[in-house]
């Protein structure tokens, strides 16, 4: 869900910015992959603390909702805020990728992961753009995420 | 002039002045900056500390850190190992272009030499300064360089020409004073008041080629201390023959050598021993103090070899570390004497030299013997202890020692030992009480004990003891404020048994790298020996005790190590069987013992040739003519029970195939030729004539037979396959050789001159050896050093004869040796061939056990096997050392690279750590092989290991680092797997899985690289065991076999059990048999067990031979039964299906009429109690499917012995309440009551089993509660995604409308 909301947000930006962010996330995923090589399961579990993730995601969706209801284009920050919490699913993807291919050079795994993330994020953003997801979809998704994060936070 | 102009002028003048000042400073006043590159730490210190000029600034840097050469005025480099990269060379060029002189100190063959801005005269002079390192030369060299580099600068340009240092000289404390002969040095000592009139001379060699100045405090300290003791010390430096000549010129009474390899050649060493000159070899370490004290940083590699291993071949004594290297305030690394160690060395030196002069009747000798707890016999491998000890004490008396009170007869002596010199277990409090009341022990007051402990032990070490066992006197043998110690004193001789090294739960606890702290009851007798008795020397009697296996450093121990501190700076001597060199070396290095070897038991006729002769003949006839194959032959084979041992069918009709008959033939031939040992050796008593004959045949016959076969092969008379076939040689050559040798040794007939001479010489040496150990011990107690010799089985290496010598190890850096490599290749390929023939495919993983004794005897053949499996081979230098490895090309290998796992004993870890690292590198190399035309199971295994570790929670990076780890062993500084005690304490475990967990827990320390050395990781070890197809156990001695030596089931059995549990299938188990050095071969473990069982335990001739022995010999039966129990627990398939029934027939019902019960009743009833207890426990555990009659008979015998002799108070019986209950249940009520009473008299505990609690250490925290299930979240996300997609599509359609 976090990734979906971030991708939808990206799809609302100009294409060049969208591509730039996709590239950025691709590189970030590659770097995260290298970082993940040094984390044990125990450390990962503290990294992906669900309560903390829920809390931060809640804040992010507020930003998204604020963007949705913002009337002017003057708030650059809101407009070009890419949804930083996508780093969490990317980190998850990186941690899985690095564990999936024992024996393969970690740098190579990082590069491949980055490439896949770049293509996936970029492609998904383009798809959402084509489907004209827009602010309304973003609002709906953000609302749903808000509910989910409240529930998760309460249950965790 | 206006104000502004004035100010401007002043400023201008100031700026100009400053500029001029700077220029003047730079040109004339600045110190000359000299950079020294790649010096050794000691050299840095030397150069800097000898710089007395404030106009010279010296900077020393290792080559990796040397940059910005252009910032210096001169550059001096040490060429040894020097290498500069392109950036550094660029900087050096820049400096050269600026005119900076650059000089490289070279010796021949250095590949990297750089010189700039110096002419040949200058280079020659600098080389002279470097080649003659001393205070003056360092000082003058720096001034000379200043003169070249910065001639215009003021001050300190004067320098003297290089002082020519003689390459051979005597020297002393005063710097710069060298002497060409001892008389000149003597004059100097007299002049300076350092000469001791009447003092004995000591030759001192510091082991380096020059006496460094300013950095030799450790040398000076020893010189000074020995001088203060009253000796005249003659330090000298020389090499080769001149060293020997200079040493002899001193006419020393002792030699002190800081070893760097051998002291000299054999001629010099023999001269020293001929003249009763002891060799003391304490050594300086290049480690820091911190590293020295860190037990996770063992001494290894080149340092271990040069300082310890090679000097052992000269018989060097007292391998104490007397100095370390540490930075001073300025950061320069200097030798730092370790005061406590220096004191320890001086004290030991003094005490040893004192043995030469002190009268025997005044000497106090402490003798520590070994004994199982309770009523069991005294213990020593291969030696009958009580008569040996008695013989030794009588010899002491004959030599003038005060042994007053020694009983007149052996029997009385034995009774005193058993009643007063016993060892108590914590599970028998009633027995303890009785002992304290009746046995007249030594009582040590708490205040005395604590006072001694304060003097001898470090406070933190004693605090550990108190934390673990409470305040003194502790719980064992304690009463009020006193501690009872079992000891007997005869005049000036103190005898005491070595107590239990741990108590209570520690006896069974699974240690996970934790130090086992000895209890008060263990420490007390040693402190008493030091402080109250005041022993002049300590002897440990027989193989072996446990003090040398207490955790700590592998060599170079400190006061923090129990093995060192409890010996207490006494000369320490150790009677040790020649057959166990691996463990002997540990005693030598960790408790600085001088070993004195004694004989193994004699070889005796097994009688099996006669038993199976007819069968052998018929087998050969049928194999030669297959048409003669018949059912009668098969029936015979079945009658003997051989089909069970070889997994052949037992169908009465039909015939066996020729291949099956060949298998039987090989097995029976082996049985017929199996070497078995008889009653244990008694020191001072030669073998009987008959046993002597058999022993000589054991040493010589195989060798001669093989040589004759080889000659026939060279002449073309026999094919190569026959030469490599043990059965062929055993049948065609061995009988003839044995006949001829028997005639020669009986004084009739003759064989080839060399053969008979050699056989007669072996006999002479064996005769000489009986008593040689006592003679050698008496000599060393008089200060005559013990000559060095190799160790091992005399059959494998007759050079170990005669006895009475100080064993040494091998240089691990040269292993695997060339012969070992060839043997290793043969065995590795045979392993694979056998497996392939049986299973139709290659094994993916082969596991090895490395032991120290086998490593030494075979020169590393098992290491060779492991390397060959990987497809890696050694690369040697000119000196034969293995310096590198390379891949064997896949084409040449002709098969897949096979993955390995290695488990090591602690002893092997300590003596050959560098080989373990090498093997780990070999795994990494093989994993990376890409040229393979066959599968690479090593690479596959590495990836699988990485994957498994990741799945178990390890980080991918760490998992990859560990993926090439294949070598594991007990906790660092520990020696035991812990499995013997654990398995045989069978009342404490119910499920074999507990044994598996215990084994993995104890043996998961990895030994692959320095960074991870000794780190424990159960997941890694489990991953490494996964996929094991074959386990290989080494066997290199004829004095033990898979059932007579407990360590075989301890290692191979435990690994087999673990592999079975992890993999779900039992791996094959084979023995790599090196007993015949000409024909190393593999043997299936089951077959090996069957051979040994038939040749020994079920062989009436063997039993009769052993029944000639005393209590210790009898005790071995109990031990063997417990080993069989161990195999039943670990790998029951290794035993014949009806072995227990056969043992029952032989020992319980005595079907052969050997007088079993009478013998044990008289000699050692405890042994038979143990045997019967083992049988009953095996039945209780389900290992023996006994019927009620068998159980009743066994229980009755056990109870009868208990009623007659009382409870044995051994662990197996008295610490196992479940067994006691089971035994009682097989008896009548009356007998059961009597039995229970006898047991409770000793244990005074209710008969409930103690359940062992394993300490479980969780590596992962408990998962947090209340976490949301991932599946729930995924489901929610999925549903929402679909709704969203539908919504978006709907909206799009609406817009389009």
Task: Please describe what this structure looks like.
The complex is a heterodimer of chains A (156) and B (1297). Chain A is an all-alpha fold and 156 residues long. Helix content of chain A is 80%, strand content 0%. Chain A has one domain. Chain A has helices at residues 2-11, 15-36, 41-47, 50-69, 76-80, 87-100, 106-130, 134-155. Chain B has 1297 residues and is of the alpha/beta class. Chain B has 6 domains: 25-149, Rossmann fold; 169-337, Rossmann fold (3-Layer(aba) Sandwich); 361-603, no CATH class; 812-1084, no CATH class; 1099-1257, no CATH class; 1269-1297. Chain B has 53 helices and 35 strands. In chain B, the strands form 9 sheets. In chain B, strands 32-31-30-27-33-34-35 form a 7-stranded mixed beta sheet, sandwiched between helices. A 6-stranded mixed beta sheet of chain B has the order 6-5-8-7-9-10, with helices on both faces. In chain B, strand 34 and strand 35 (1081-1084) form a beta hairpin. The longest helix of chain B is centred in the first third of the chain and has 27 residues, at 3-29. Classes of the chains: A mainly alpha (156), B alpha/beta (1297). The A-B interface holds A 1, 4, 36-43, 45, 50, 98-99, 102-103, 106, 128, 131-134, 136-137, 140-141, 144, 148, 152, 155-156 and B 939, 942-944, 946-947, 950, 952-960, 963, 1260-1261, 1263, 1266-1268, 1273, 1276-1277, 1280-1281, 1284, 1287-1289, 1291-1292, 1295.
């Amino acid at each position: 869900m976090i990734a979906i909301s971030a991708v939808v947000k990206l799809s609302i930006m100009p294409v060049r910015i969208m591509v730039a962010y996709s590239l950025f996330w691709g590189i970030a995923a590659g770097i995260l992959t290298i970082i993940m090589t040094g984390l044990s399961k125990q450390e990962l579990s503290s990294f992906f603390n669900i309560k903390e993730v829920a809390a931060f995601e809640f804040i992010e969706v507020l930003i998204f909702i604020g963007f949705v209801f913002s009337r002017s284009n003057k708030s650059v920050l809101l407009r070009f805020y890419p949804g930083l919490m996508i780093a969490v699913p990317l980190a998850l993807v990186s941690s899985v990728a690095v564990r999936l291919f024992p024996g393969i050079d970690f740098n190579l795994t990082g590069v491949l992961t980055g490439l896949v993330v770049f293509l996936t994020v970029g492609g998904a953003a383009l798809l959402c753009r084509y489907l004209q997801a827009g602010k309304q979809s973003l609002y709906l998704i953000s609302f749903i995420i808000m509910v989910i994060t409240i529930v998760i936070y309460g249950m965790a | 002039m206006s104000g502004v102009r004035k100010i401007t002028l002043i400023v201008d003048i100031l700026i100009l002045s400053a500029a001029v000042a700077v220029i003047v400073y730079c040109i004339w006043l600045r110190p000359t900056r000299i950079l020294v590159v790649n010096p050794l730490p000691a050299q840095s210190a030397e150069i800097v500390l000898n710089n007395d000029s404030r106009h010279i600034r010296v900077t020393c840097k290792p080559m990796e850190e040397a940059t910005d050469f252009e910032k210096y005025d001169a550059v001096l480099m040490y060429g040894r190992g020097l290498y500069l990269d392109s950036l550094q060379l660029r900087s050096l060029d820049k400096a050269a272009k600026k005119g900076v002189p650059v000089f490289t100190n070279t010796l021949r063959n250095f590949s990297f030499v750089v010189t700039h801005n110096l002419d040949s005269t200058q280079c020659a002079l600098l080389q002279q300064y470097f080649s003659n390192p001393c205070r003056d030369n360092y000082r003058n060299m720096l001034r000379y360089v200043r003169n070249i580099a910065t001639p215009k600068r003021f001050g300190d340009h004067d320098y003297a020409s290089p002082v020519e240092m003689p390459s051979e000289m005597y020297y002393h404390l005063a710097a710069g004073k060298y002497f060409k002969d001892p008389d000149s040095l003597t004059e100097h000592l007299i002049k300076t008041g350092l000469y001791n009139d009447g003092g004995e001379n000591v030759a001192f060699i510091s082991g380096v080629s020059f006496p460094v100045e300013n950095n030799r405090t450790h040398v000076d300290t020893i010189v000074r201390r020995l001088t203060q003791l009253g000796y005249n010390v003659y330090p000298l430096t020389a090499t080769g023959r001149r060293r020997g000549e200079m040493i002899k010129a001193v006419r020393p009474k002792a030699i002190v050598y800081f070893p760097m390899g051998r002291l000299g050649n054999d001629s010099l060493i023999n001269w020293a021993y001929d003249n009763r000159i002891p060799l003391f070899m304490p050594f300086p370490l290049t480690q820091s103090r911190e590293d020295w004290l860190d037990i996770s940083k063992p001494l290894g590699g080149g340092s271990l070899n040069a300082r310890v291993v090679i000097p052992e071949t000269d018989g060097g004594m007292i391998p104490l570390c007397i100095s370390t290297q540490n930075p001073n305030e300025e950061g320069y690394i200097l030798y730092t004497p370790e005061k406590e160690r220096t004191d320890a060395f001086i004290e030991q030196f003094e005490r040893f030299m004192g043995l030469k002069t002190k009268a025997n009747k005044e000497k106090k000798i402490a003798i520590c013997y070994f004994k199982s707890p309770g009523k069991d016999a005294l213990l020593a491998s291969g030696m009958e202890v009580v008569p040996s000890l008695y013989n030794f004490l009588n010899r002491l008396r004959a030599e003038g020692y005060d042994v007053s009170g020694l009983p007149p007869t052996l029997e009385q002596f034995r009774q005193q030992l058993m009643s007063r010199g016993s060892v108590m277990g914590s599970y028998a409090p009633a027995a303890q009480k009785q002992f304290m009341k009746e046995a007249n022990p030594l009582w040590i007051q708490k205040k005395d004990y604590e006072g001694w402990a304060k003097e001898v032990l470090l406070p933190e070490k004693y605090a550990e003891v108190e934390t673990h066992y409470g305040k003194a006197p502790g719980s064992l043998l304690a009463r009020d404020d006193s501690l009872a110690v079992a000891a007997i004193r005869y005049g000036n001789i103190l005898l005491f048994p070595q107590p239990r090294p741990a108590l209570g739960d520690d006896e069974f606890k699974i240690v996970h790298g934790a130090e086992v702290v000895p209890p008060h009851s263990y420490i007390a007798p040693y402190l008493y020996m030091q402080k109250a008795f005041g022993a002049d020397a300590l002897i440990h009697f027989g193989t072996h005790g446990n003090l040398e296996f207490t955790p700590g450093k592998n060599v170079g121990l400190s006061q923090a190590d129990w093995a060192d501190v409890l010996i207490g700076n006494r000369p320490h001597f150790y009677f040790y069987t020649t057959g166990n060199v691996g463990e002997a070396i540990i005693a030598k290095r960790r408790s600085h013992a001088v070993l004195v070897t004694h004989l193994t038991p004699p070889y005796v006729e097994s009688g099996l040739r006669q038993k199976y002769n007819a069968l052998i003949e018929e087998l050969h006839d049928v194999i030669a003519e297959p048409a003669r194959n018949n059912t009668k032959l098969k029936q015979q084979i079945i009658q003997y029970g051989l089909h069970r041992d070889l997994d052949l069918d037992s169908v009465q009709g039909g015939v066996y195939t020729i291949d099956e008959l060949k298998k039987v033939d090989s097995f029976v031939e082996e049985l017929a030729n199996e070497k078995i040992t008889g009653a244990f050796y008694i020191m001072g008593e030669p073998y009987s004539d008959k046993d002597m004959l058999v022993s000589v045949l054991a040493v010589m016959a195989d060798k001669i037979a093989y040589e004759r076969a080889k000659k026939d092969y060279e002449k073309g008379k026999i094919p190569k396959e026959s030469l490599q076939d043990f059965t062929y040689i055993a049948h065609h050559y061995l009988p003839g050789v044995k006949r001829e040798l028997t005639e020669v040794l009986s004084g009739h007939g003759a064989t080839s001159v060399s053969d008979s001479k050699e056989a007669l010489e072996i006999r002479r040496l064996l005769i000489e050896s009986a008593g040689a150990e006592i003679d050698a011990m008496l000599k060393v107690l008089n200060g005559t050093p013990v000559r060095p010799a190799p160790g091992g089985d005399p059959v494998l290496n007759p050079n170990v004869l005669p006895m009475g010598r100080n064993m040494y190890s091998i240089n691990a850096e040269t292993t695997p040796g060339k012969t070992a490599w060839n043997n290793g290749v043969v065995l590795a390929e045979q392993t694979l061939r056998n497996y392939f023939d049986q299973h139709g495919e290659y094994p993916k993983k082969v596991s090895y056990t490395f032991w120290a004794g086998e490593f030494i005897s075979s020169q590393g053949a098992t290491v060779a096997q492991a390397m060959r499996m990987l497809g890696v081979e050694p690369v040697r230098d000119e000196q034969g050392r293995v310096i590198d490895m390379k891949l064997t090309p896949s084409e040449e290998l002709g098969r897949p690279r096979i993955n390995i796992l290695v488990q090591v004993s602690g002893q092997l870890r300590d003596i050959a750590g560098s080989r373990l690292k090498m093997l780990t590198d070999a795994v990494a190399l093989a994993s990376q092989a890409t040229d393979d035309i066959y599968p690479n199971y090593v690479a596959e295994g590495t990836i699988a290991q990485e994957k498994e570790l990741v799945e178990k929670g390890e980080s991918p990076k760490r998992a990859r680092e560990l993926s090439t780890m294949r070598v594991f062993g007990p906790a660092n500084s520990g020696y035991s797997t812990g499995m013997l005690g654990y398995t045989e304490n069978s009342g404490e475990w119910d499920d074999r899985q507990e044994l598996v967990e215990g084994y993995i827990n104890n043996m998961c320390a990895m030994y692959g690289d320095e960074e991870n050395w000794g780190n424990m990781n159960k997941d890694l070890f489990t991953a490494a065991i996964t996929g094991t197809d074959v386990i290989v156990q080494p066997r290199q001695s004829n004095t033990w076999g898979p059932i007579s030596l407990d360590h075989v089931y301890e290692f191979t059995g435990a690994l087999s059990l673990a592999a079975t549990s992890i993999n779900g299938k039992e791996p094959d188990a084979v023995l790599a048999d090196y007993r015949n050095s000409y024909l190393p071969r593999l043997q299936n473990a089951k077959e090996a067990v069957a051979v040994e069982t038939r040749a020994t335990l079920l062989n009436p001739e063997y039993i009769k031979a052993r029944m000639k022995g005393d209590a210790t010999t009898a005790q071995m039966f109990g031990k063997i039964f417990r080993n069989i129990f161990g195999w039943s627990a670990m790998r029951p398939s290794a035993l014949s299906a009806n072995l227990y029934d056969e043992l029952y027939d032989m020992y319980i019902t005595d079907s052969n009429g050997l007088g079993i019960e009478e013998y044990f009743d008289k000699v050692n009833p405890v042994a038979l109690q143990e045997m019967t207890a083992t049988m009953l426990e095996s039945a209780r555990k389900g290992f023996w499917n006994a019927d009620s009659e068998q159980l009743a008979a066994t229980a009755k015998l056990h109870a009868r012995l208990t009623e007659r002799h009382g409870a044995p108070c051994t662990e197996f019986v008295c610490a196992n309440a479940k067994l006691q209950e089971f035994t009682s249940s097989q008896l009548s009520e009356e007998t059961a009551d009597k039995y229970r009473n006898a047991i409770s008299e000793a244990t005074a505990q209710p008969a409930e089993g103690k359940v062992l609690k394993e300490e479980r250490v969780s590596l992962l925290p408990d998962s947090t509660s209340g976490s949301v299930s991932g599946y729930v979240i995924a489901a929610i996300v999925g549903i929402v995604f679909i709704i969203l997609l539908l919504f978006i599509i709907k909206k799009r359609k609406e817009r389009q409308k």
